[in-house]
Amino acid sequence: MARTATTRAATALLLHGEERFLVDERARATLDGWRKDLVSDFGLETIDGAGLGPARLQDTVLQLPFLDPYRVVFVRMVPANRAEPLAPAVAEIPPTTRLLITIAGRLGSSNKLAKAIATAGGEVIEMQHLKGRALSDWASRRAVEKHGLPANVAAQVVRVSPPDLSIIDSELTKLAAYKASGEKLTAEVMTELLAGAREDEIFKLTDNLLPRPTAQALEIARNLTRSGLQPTSVAYRMARHYALVLAVKARQERGESLQQVQDGMTEHRFVIQKAFDAAQDASANRLEQALRQIRDYEWEVKSGQVDAELGLDVLLTKL
User: Last residue of some domain: 177, 197, 217?
Assistant: First the structure.
């Protein structure tokens, strides 16, 4: 969906799209700008988009400011499949209200809420998923403009990281901090620093997934998302673990010993040993079912049916 042009500074903004990191970042920047003129704590109201009805949204939008020159209303992460019923609530946005709505997922070009925001004089911006050249270009700009790093550093980060903007930005932040300490950022140092990114926590998470996810697995997953890792990236790492255990299980069923499995696979021997132990107590059907459930979760998040963080919690209770 293209950006809707306006003849004045928009006082309503709707952000949607598959790139959650960019949606969140633009939302933060917008709120920071709008907060500058607020003089009281009453000026900003944040509403959880899950379960929000049009009546409450309309009442909030139409409410007059108390001490501030205007009110800022932030509606956070409306599920994409629940956005359209909110359209009537934004048919009239008073000049004393600044309205920011973020969507969990992408809205189609005919979506009624997006059209209502545009009709009311607001802006609708889609944050499209970045991949390939677009991802590399974004990382290069991020490295140079925000972190003061050479563009070639970004290229190495992109090569070794999952295609997740939050992870890439976190790695760039870490490298920039190392450089700021006065140390020389050599290729060898970068390889060492990038190799350890959250691996300890990821290992602890996967170690608590089988035969069933433990309470500790849920806690670790929440800590990872709070630290900036996208929930879908956590799910991706979980899927890799289940797939590895499934591959080891197939070799076990063919009668291969631990040493034969280690010799025949490219992963670290210790990782294979852990997977070998886990596979002994897991059935192939159970592992395949887990992979399907993770696939379904990722699709539901991308289609805006569920909030990514809440959905990850639910996923772990199902596995």
Answer: 197
